[in-house]
Specification:
Length: 217
């Protein structure tokens, strides 16, 4: 977990495209804070400060404290609109969070101890199925990353979400299956994700039905 990043903002009295263009000409970025059963709050942010922030890793999983006048809003970034050509930040949406709230956040997966992985030592390949995992976390305890220890894994082994130690109070948002995060595959063997496996199962059923039809003829 990391400390909240604090940024300053000014309240925006007017909304709309014309107002937003004027804000950008003044060197600021229009944004809105919403949620937590409170009215939306239009704000503007200093362009240089927010541009530096949004290009840092993990922006969508980082708690921000936005200071607006005498008030402070603890938020998560929920949407960033970029200019299609210049990549400048055009608009941002922030979700208010309270200490008791739980939020769904995409958290990066870190893989460690590749040099202690028997499967990789004999030529196997780490195939990452999910570089991020969406987790349901307490708003005040969002992990920066989750860690997968590769030591002891052999070719053909899979890492499922159930084998990864998650912080207290943190659970996957996918609860109907023990999904795969990574596998140790043989060289050139590749990895099949869950959608591929379902598709192949369907193709096998179709082929079986075709064979039965042909034998009837």
């Amino acid at each position: 977990m990391s400390d909240n990043t604090t940024i300053s903002a000014e309240q925006r009295e007017r909304v709309g495209k014309g107002s937003a263009r004027a804000v950008r000409r003044a060197g600021r970025v229009p944004a809105v804070i919403y949620g937590d059963k409170k009215d939306p709050l239009g704000i503007t942010l200093e362009t240089r400060e927010i541009t530096k922030l949004v290009h840092q890793p993990g922006i969508f999983g980082r708690l921000l404290d936005i200071q607006v006048g005498s008030g402070k809003h603890t938020v998560l970034t929920r949407d960033i609109q970029f200019h299609p050509v210049t990549d400048n930040v055009l608009h941002m949406d922030f979700l208010r969070v309270s200490g008791s709230a739980k939020v769904a956040v995409a958290v990066a997966v870190e893989f460690i101890n590749e040099d202690e992985c028997p499967g990789i030592k004999v030529g196997g390949v780490l195939n990452v199925v999910r570089y991020e995992v969406e987790l349901l976390c307490p708003a005040t305890s969002i992990p920066e990353k989750i860690t997968v220890d590769l030591s002891g894994l052999k070719i053909g082994d899979s890492v499922h979400i159930s084998t990864i130690e998650l912080p207290d109070g943190v659970t996957p948002t996918i609860t109907d299956r023990d999904f795969t995060v990574a596998t140790i595959a043989s060289p050139g063997g590749g990895v099949k994700n869950e959608d591929d496996e379902d598709a192949e199962a369907g193709e096998g059923e179709d082929a079986g039905a075709a064979d039965d039809s042909a034998s009837d003829d």
